């Protein structure tokens, strides 16, 4: 049997198009003339029919145009038709932003799908603040779904600049893109009232619209993010605000503001901030362990950048706790540090607090809520199903002669705004840590029993009293679980990827961490830090990694406050420094909280 070969020459295909292009430029063998805007384009019927669904149908066996010498295309511009013909004859498509509408119109009209795809990619790759509204309208008109989605996302993220510099572009935006932008979960740097005013201005510029359409548009706004005084005036701002649907949304927003303590558990999309949910909030602490600051820092894990919040803490605290529920921050207990003047000399007084403050990032506002039943410092708090638990700790006696450790637990019912007592721990404990896994509270380490004497100092604890015990609270009953391999005090627990991690501590060994598996009730030692620290802040991220902020460490027999931000990869068992704090920081407490940019 004879053998044979099938070989392909790319130059033949390229040469074929090149030959047709040369014949076209010389106007040889052209058998049809296309006309647009008074400009004629001699072409080859066979090439057009083989490259375009439109021309294939136009030159079919039963059409009147199959023998026509000249075909008029009044829907197209000369620039658009010329660009598409060049593409059909050469494979190259010349596009610029000014020419894009005409080119895309011609590609769509003539059903040249590859040219349409190139135009869509040009839009997607070239989106900027200046052109995103124009491109969104173009993509919506031509049903370019990918380009439309990208343009709408750009509009939402660049809304602040657009409102300041290109408001007219927003007022010319198609309604679908505007609704999509107003539905976005992230619109950095823009207050909801500005978005409401934009929507009303758009209705004025593009109206009158059927009430169904205006209802659809205004329903994407979040009236719960608007202050009550502004809500009252909005109800009369536009006739579209007077429809039954929108009036009911305004009423629900007003009711939300009257919920008091129950606001965190009565969240809806109408009251949810348009912000990234993964911001880390660093609350309190300072560059001096004995003089905490009222600062709050926000950390963005994506950009690894810090920003300072305009609001400061209502109290100067140390050894406090923080947690978040429903997008609100709770600042709980700790030691109030006051500076006073006694006999002309500056003095610092410290008192254990039972105060609880709630921070609402929607309106940058602090509000004092019901205090704990007991004053607590060096305690731990955690959240289970929107209930806040305060566990153990220590307090200074009223006569300030001694500090007493606590075995009590109390929990805050957010719905009622009331603290109630829970199941006491097996023994008093402070300097311990807690974490929640599978809706069960786990507590480890700490110091057991009472501490006597005044002038309590974290560095004066008897290391021999430090505990390795690990307890589980579920259903109101404490159960002892497998002990940690290391006795720890001033350490941290964190839940990630279905495990509990115990990190570092105040005493040797500073650097060790271990992981708890609840299924096997077993601890596993993991890779330690080369240089350990204590009095740091820690938070688990959405990816399951752990972030450690600042703290103190020993260097040449001296305590040094550090600026490092460390990340522990729980899957790879690996530590690395990802950035540094703006300044040295110790004693900070961390939680994840959505924050406006």
Describe the structure.
With 597 residues, the protein is of the alpha+beta class. It has a domain at 280-592: Kelch-type beta propeller (Neuraminidase, 6 Propeller), CATH 2.120.10. The protein is elongated, with a radius of gyration of 34 Å. Helix 4 crosses helix 5 and helix 5 (100-109) packs antiparallel against helix 6 (113-125). It starts with 9 loop residues before the first helix and ends in a 5-residue tail after the last strand. A hairpin with a 4-residue loop joins strand 12 (356-360) and strand 13 (365-369). It has a 4-stranded antiparallel beta sheet with strand order 6-5-4-34, with no helix packed on it. Mean pLDDT is 90; it is low at 451-464.
């Amino acid at each position: 049997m004879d053998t044979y070969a099938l070989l392909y020459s790319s130059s033949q295909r390229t040469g074929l198009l090149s030959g047709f292009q040369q014949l076209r430029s010389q106007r040889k063998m052209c058998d049809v003339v296309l006309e647009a805007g008074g400009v004629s384009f001699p072409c080859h019927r066979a090439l057009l029919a083989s490259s375009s669904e439109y021309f294939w149908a136009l030159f079919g066996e039963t059409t009147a145009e199959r023998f026509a010498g000249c075909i008029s295309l009044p829907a197209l511009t000369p620039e658009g038709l010329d660009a598409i013909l060049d593409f059909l004859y050469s494979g190259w498509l010349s596009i610029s932003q000014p020419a894009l509408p005409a080119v895309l119109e011609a590609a769509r009209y003539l059903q040249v799908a590859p040219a349409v795809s190139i135009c869509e990619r040009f839009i997607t790759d070239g989106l900027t603040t200046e052109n995103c509204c124009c491109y969104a309208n173009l993509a919506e008109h031509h049903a370019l779904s990918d380009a439309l989605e990208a343009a709408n996302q750009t509009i939402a993220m660049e809304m602040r600049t657009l409102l300041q510099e290109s408001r007219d572009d927003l007022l010319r935006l198609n309604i679908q893109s505007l609704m999509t932008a107003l539905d976005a979960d992230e619109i950095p740097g823009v207050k909801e009232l500005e978005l409401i005013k934009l929507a009303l201005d758009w209705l004025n510029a593009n109206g009158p619209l059927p009430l169904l359409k205006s209802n659809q548009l205004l329903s994407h706004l979040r009236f719960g993010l608007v202050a009550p005084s502004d809500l009252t005036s909005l109800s009369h701002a536009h006739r579209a605000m007077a429809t039954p649907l929108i009036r009911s949304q305004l009423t629900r927003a007003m009711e939300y503001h009257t919920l008091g303590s129950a606001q965190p558990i009565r969240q809806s999309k109408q009251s949810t901030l348009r912000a990234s949910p993964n911001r880390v909030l660093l609350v309190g602490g300072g560059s001096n362990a004995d003089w905490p600051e009222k600062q709050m820092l926000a950390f963005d894990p994506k950009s690894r950048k810090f920003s300072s919040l305009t609001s400061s803490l209502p109290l100067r605290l140390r050894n406090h706790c923080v947690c978040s529920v429903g997008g609100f921050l709770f600042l709980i207990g700790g030691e109030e540090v006051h500076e006073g003047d006694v006999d002309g000399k500056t003095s610092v007084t410290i008192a254990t607090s039972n105060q609880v403050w709630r921070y609402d990032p929607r309106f940058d506002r602090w509000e004092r809520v019901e205090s704990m039943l007991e004053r607590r410092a060096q305690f731990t708090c955690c959240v289970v199903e929107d209930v806040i638990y305060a566990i153990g700790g220590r307090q200074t006696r009223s006569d300030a002669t001694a500090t007493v450790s606590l075995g009590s637990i109390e929990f805050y019912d957010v719905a009622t705004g009331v603290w109630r007592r829970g199941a006491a721990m097996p023994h008093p404990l402070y300097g311990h840590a807690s974490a929640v896994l599978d809706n069960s509270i786990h507590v480890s380490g700490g110091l057991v029993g009472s501490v006597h004497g005044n002038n309590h100092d974290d560095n004066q604890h008897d290391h021999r009293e430090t505990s390795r015990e690990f307890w589980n609270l579920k259903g109101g009953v404490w159960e002892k679980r497998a002990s940690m391999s290391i006795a720890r005090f001033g350490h941290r627990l964190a839940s990630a990827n279905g495990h509990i991690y115990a990190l570092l501590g105040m005493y040797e060994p500073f650097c060790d961490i271990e992981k708890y598996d609840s299924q096997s009730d077993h601890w596993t030692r993991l890779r330690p830090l080369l240089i350990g620290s204590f009095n740091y802040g820690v938070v688990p991220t959405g990816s399951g990694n752990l972030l450690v902020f600042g703290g103190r460490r020993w260097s040449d027999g001296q305590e040094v406050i550090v600026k490092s931000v460390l990340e522990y990869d729980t899957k790879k068992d690996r530590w690395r420094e990802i950035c540094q704090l703006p300044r040295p920081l110790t004693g900070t407490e961390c939680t994840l909280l959505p924050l406006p940019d």
